[in-house]
Amino acid sequence: MMDLFWKIDWYKVFVPSTSVAELVVRGTLVYLLLFAILRFLPNRQIGTVGISDLLVVVLFAEAAQNAMASNYTAITDGVILVMTIIFWSCILNWLGYKFPRFQHFLHPSPVPLVVNGKMMRRNLEQQLITQDELMSMLRQQGVQKMSEVKLAFMESDGNISVITNVPKSNVSPVLKDESDTYATE
């Protein structure tokens, strides 16, 4: 009985049960396929996590799960998959940094939702945002009326950025506890 408790099959722990080339190909195909699928989802479905960040987390968990679950898979299998995922994440980020056109593919341009106080209904439909959801997002940005909005964009990370028509003259600096803060008059 004690022999079963302490016996470790080191071969199964460290020697890959699948060829290294197959692990790299599988990791590459899954990463790139999921990246392409997530890239074309409406931005609001992604939230504030970038596509590549989301993929890395999900695929790390999956790759590591198989190696840790002891289902006749070596730790090396999981390490190879994780390294493949890291490789593709770094390569895509590097390509986006070096080549502006590729950056546009990785991070789509902001989508205008409001222009000069008018909702862009077609863009709202494309992003699957209702009028009530838009108003909720605008209120979270401190906007009370649609007429106050000069521009509102759905950013590539799923956040809404807002530029208002409200002049900044009603904000004055106030010194409090030796730190610069601002208060409204």
Topology:
Layout: H1 2-6, H2 10-14, H3 20-39, H4 51-68, H5 75-98, H6 100-106, E1 111-115, E2 118-119, H7 121-126, H8 131-140, E3 149-154, E4 160-164, E5 171-176, E6 179-184
Antiparallel strand pairs: 1-2, 1-3, 3-4, 5-6
Domain YetF C-terminal: 98-168
Protein name: DUF421 domain-containing protein
Subcellular location: Cell membrane
Account of the protein in words:
The protein is elongated and about 75 Å long. The protein has a four-stranded antiparallel beta sheet with strand order 2-1-3-4. It has a two-stranded antiparallel sheet with strand order 5-6. The protein is an alpha+beta fold and 185 residues long. Helix 3 (20-39) packs antiparallel against helix 4 and helix 4 packs antiparallel against helix 5. The chain has helices spanning 2-6, 10-14, 20-39, 51-68, 75-98, 100-106, 121-126, 131-140, and strands spanning 111-115, 118-119, 149-154, 160-164, 171-176, 179-184. A hairpin with a 2-residue loop joins strand 1 and strand 2. Mean pLDDT is 76; it is low at 171-185. It folds into two domains: 2-106, no CATH class; 111-170, CRO Repressor, CATH 3.30.240. The longest helix has 24 residues, at 75-98. The chain is built from eight helices and six strands; from the N terminus they run H-H-H-H-H-H-E-E-H-H-E-E-E-E. Keywords: Cell membrane, Membrane, Transmembrane, Transmembrane helix. Its main location: membrane. This is DUF421 domain-containing protein. InterPro entries: Cyt_b/b6_C_sf (IPR036150), DUF421 (IPR007353), UPF0702_alpha/beta_dom_sf (IPR023090). The chain crosses the membrane at residues 20-41, 48-68, 74-95.
